[in-house]
Amino acid sequence: MDTSADRESIEIFRNERFEAYAQDLGFMWRWEIHSDGKLMQEGCSLTKRAADEAVGYVVAYFGRIRGVGPD
How many domains does the chain have? Predict the structure, then answer.
């Protein structure tokens, strides 16, 4: 995730195939999911909890179609 000095990305998910990072932009959370070093999905949520939930749903979906589920 491209970050500026004042907006640090935090890791919100990781398993053997996927990792996800989020940034608090003050008015929303921007998140990205990566797999094998490639951006798979990005999105925005109003809260950190909503970002965690959204990432969980997307990872579960990609896990089903790729045969690797979330931890």
Answer: 1
